[in-house]
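Hi U.,

Before I forget, here's the chain from the pilot set. I'm dumping it here mostly so it's searchable later in email.
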Amino acid sequence: MPVPKKRLPSSRRDRRRSHHALKATGTVECPSCGADTLPHHACPACGTYKGRSVAEGQASKDTKKAEKKAFLKRAEEGTEEHDHDHEDHDHETESKKDSKKEKKEDKK
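Structure:
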């Protein structure tokens, strides 16, 4: 494995490292909610860009998550209504039957 032939002077090492410094990111204040945002980006807190709403804010994301969680809970309990009845079929067994039919058709 190669190794350096001579010891590097500290001045040369420091000149090389002169470009390694981290620069602070510039932020601007959102005109609608006052949160810090990156320039030329939509505000992550309220979802506005140049005074108009372009994205969903965190509040609407939280409500959507809560609605989805409530829907899944109702579906598990069986209180969520489907748009068809289950008298003649069951979803779990039907999906297994379909996959078996597809495998048989692929073999032919």
